[in-house]
Amino acid sequence: MRVADGDVRSSIEIRMAVETRVSAFQTAQRRFDAAADVIGLSDDTRRGLREVKRELTVHFPVHMDDGSVHVFTGWRVQHNISRGPAKGGIRYHPDITLDLVKALAMLMTWKCSVVGLPYGGSKGAVAVDPAKLSLSELEHLTRRYATEIAILIGPEKDIPAPDMGTNPQVMAWIMDTISMHSGHSVPAAVTGKPVDIGGSEGRIDAPGRGATYLTLEALKYLHIEDDPPTVAIQGYGQVGRSAARLLTEAGLKIVAVSDSKGGVYNPSGLDLAALDEHRQVRGGVTGFKKAEAITNAELLELPVTVLVPAAVQDVITADNATRIRARLITEGANAAVAPEADPILHDRGIFLIPDIIANAGGVIVSYFEWVQDLQAFFWEEEEINTKLHHVITRAFYDILHTSVNKRIDMRLAAYAIAVQRVANATMVRGIYP
Ligand code: NAD
To answer: What domain count does the chain have?
Structure first.
């Protein structure tokens, strides 16, 4: 199962909880407070934006293959819809809680806002380990969950997407369920669908492509002229592989990659075609003959121009931040940099493209998918990539200018912009009635 929409294997929440020993949602609120302080938000507006708008809890039965009935618990939470319909993934994970879903919904509001999408933020989840279900159980669970939350979702109201534990097939079942209720096809009800039913070209590569565009812009801004710039990528999965391929096409040299079992390093550059063949056969990158074996920890500290952590959260910490030798970090994975490492990297002059924008290519192309579905007119991949480039580059320079002008780091700058836009929309709309 793969992840999408930025929202996604979003583990800012984990970092949030570890950081402060408070709940994930309380930590999300603290991050919001820091941004609200930067922009001088009034107490009245703060009070509204600190809470989620709606939280729906559902308990629903599913017939299991052995004839038994199991009751599952799920949620759909909308944080804010001042700027447009809510947008956020659906996660299937055994350890998910309402508190976490609320934190992730709030995060989606800021992520959509910072890249200028006309969306609010939401998140959904079911407490289940999808790997333990048969395909038929997964389909039944998905269709019943979609029915339970159908009062909230729809193209004008709230548009789900894949997240941890869900994938395009799950989105197809949700789209079909909503369509059956409506009596006609409603492709714009979800994004991250297969292309055959209204999914978008370019969606799979979108997070890695967005990260690539931003890396190239940052190299330009920083006047880094290494010839060629070298790159180490932790996590050779969906995001990491797209980024490796696209950065290579842009002229950079990938010298190291890794997966959960370990990494490989060749200072002269990795032969990605041969590596992909090796990976097909061996199921991972380790053991690749044309490179030396390294650990995941060693990969992070290599003398490279660009480091792309694209695996899991909290890999750059207060402990190793002092040893990072990259000049630029593109935070492909959500929360790869732990909060206590942020100031260390900043003080050492290491430029960070924070996760909230670095992996936003996913939700941006999801937005394009929704637009294409609504207009029933589909774009070529080239057009999608051009539009993605425009949206994500504009957001990058917005954040950069705020960071420079307000003398704050890139992450806080991104939050400040996002919160300001949502606050503007909330204030100008006023309080009903
Ligand atoms: P993936 O499962 O396709 O790939 C993850 C890779 O990381 C795999 O190669 C895996 O072996 C490796 N890995 C796992 N644990 C590791 C560890 N402890 N150390 C080193 N490597 C490890 O996942 P993905 O879709 O590429 O997502 C990667 C990150 O990007 C996640 O944080 C996710 O939230 C984020 N993200 C993904 C998308 C998307 O659309 N795919 C969008 C936004 C954000």
So the answer is: 2
